[in-house]
Design goal:
By secondary structure, this protein is mainly α. The protein has helices at about 1-30, 35-45, 50-60, 70-80, 95-130, 135-150, 150-165, 185-220, 225-230, 235-260, 260-265, 270-275, 280-290, 295-320.
């Protein structure tokens, strides 16, 4: 197992370098650039230099006057030292802006992820064990409704009902009007109160696919020969389902859930925008629109690292959930 992990990590490093290079090329090929906007604004000031002179000066300042290969090598050299530069859009160090926004998205995504597992997987198992009954049909309809709902429509519906009609929540934002006057505990609950509707939105739109996925895999396992053999031996139905069948259902679920790791840090762009939550999804979108290469590079490479890490964790968890799987 140790040799396998080391081998996968070495391969992942080469994959990451290749992915980072592709991302850098795409960032340098963006049709709009924040530098162009700044140069255009400065050139319009009275007595200022021309647009081309400002572009030359700004490009030299931010290292954009180099070619693709030299520029990428220079970026890698700074990245190894932990220096990802300053964000052009937010005018602060990239890592600082990332830390300020990522934890909001992580808390939202983490809570939604846990609730998704606690709700979707049990309902998927129940639907499979009660196939073609009213319970199965009800769960199937709910699942189809959940992943068919557009995020913007469902979020707008929640805001209309709970914010406008009932007045239980604010229309948007992360803190309330009297946040500064609250105690530490009051500020915590104020933030938690503002995250209720965004988390509900994330959970509802994500549980549908996981419920159907769990039901489908559970049905495949329940029709296997060893399940019929276990029942023929006189084992109780609960032991057959939850000890034998469900454990084998976990194998494809581990693959799906392991791939969800980047989603915890990726942020939910539509949800964060609709609820005015300054999470990493909204911040990264604004950075890309503005042509903020330093922040966009850091964010996309960070997501690539999480994707590779999620795949490695999935492979290792195979041996945990299934004793038949051992990596030599």
């Amino acid at each position: 197992m140790k040799k396998y992990i080391i081998k996968r990590l070495i391969i992942s490093v080469f994959i990451l370098i290749f992915v980072a290079f592709i991302i850098y090329v795409l960032m340098r090929s963006l049709p709009t650039s924040y530098l162009e906007q700044v140069a255009r604004q400065k050139s319009m000031q009275p007595g200022s230099k021309s647009f081309d002179e400002w572009m030359e000066q700004l490009s030299a300042t931010y290292g954009m006057d180099k070619g693709i290969i030299p520029g990428f090598l220079a970026w890698c050299g700074r990245a190894i030292r932990g220096d990802f530069g300053d964000s052009w859009r937010w005018t602060v160090p990239v890592v600082e802006k990332f830390k300020d926004s990522v934890w909001i998205s992580f808390i939202m995504g983490g809570i939604a992820f846990i609730l998704e597992i606690l709700i979707a997987i049990p309902l998927g198992v129940i639907a499979a064990t009660k196939q073609y009954t009213k319970v199965d049909y009800t769960i199937t309809i709910v699942a189809l409704a959940c992943f068919s709902l557009p995020t913007f429509f469902f979020a707008s519906l929640l805001k209309l009902l709970f914010c406008v009609k009932l007045g239980w929540f604010d229309l948007g934002g992360l803190i309330g009007r009297n946040y500064e006057n609250l105690s530490a505990a009051g500020q915590f609950w104020d933030r938690a109160h503002h995250l209720v509707l965004p988390i509900v939105t994330l959970v509802v739109i994500s549980i549908g696919s996981l419920m159907r996925y769990t039901r489908t895999n559970m049905l495949e396992v329940l029709n296997a020969d060893y399940i019929r053999t276990a029942r023929a031996k006189g084992l109780s139905e609960s032991k057959v389902i939850y000890h034998h069948a469900f454990r084998n259902t976990l194998i494809p679920l581990v693959t799906m859930l392991g791939g969800s790791l980047p989603g915890l840090f990726a942020g939910a762009l539509i949800t964060e925008t609709l609820y005015s939550i300054p999470g990493i999804g909204y911040v990264s979108y604004q950075s890309m629109v503005a042509g903020d290469i330093p922040f966009s590079m850091f964010y996309l490479v960070f997501m690539a690292v999480l994707t590779l890490l999620g795949n490695l964790i999935s492979d290792i968890l195979y041996a945990v959930v299934d004793p038949r799987v051992r990596i030599a």
